[in-house]
Specification:
The protein is built from seven helices and no strands. It is mostly helical and 139 residues long. The chain folds into two domains: 70 residues; 38 residues, no CATH class. The chain is elongated. α1 packs antiparallel against α2 and α2 packs across α4. The mean pLDDT is 93.
Length: 139
Amino acid sequence: MTQIEKFLKEKMYLQNVSSCTLDWYTHALKKLPSEQPTQEQLNNLVISLRESGLKETAVNACARALNCYLKWSGSSCHIRHLQEPSFIPPTFSITQVNLILKFKPTSFYERRTQLCLLILFDTGARISEILGLRVCSGF
């Protein structure tokens, strides 16, 4: 039995990881050039993953699985996590928020849209959560 097979068996039977986690480990471990890779081989692996078009987040996900195996196997090598770009989603400007607050709806749909926006502004909830709200009579 190989080291990788032992690792996967321990994860499955001793740590009771889910089948999805096991698939994740299996997929990542297929990328290893050997069971005991050198630091240079790991660095080359990261370079090849990036050259193949994988984004930083995908490489980091693979690195987490591989680092787990490397630590388990007692290796002194590891994959350093790549810095991921921070994403700040676009938001409404103060002018846009004021326009929404001052808007006077004339139809049911306009009122519903405005109400959804106001709830989103006040709570920070997801749109799916807002759309799932229902009016309840009585408590």
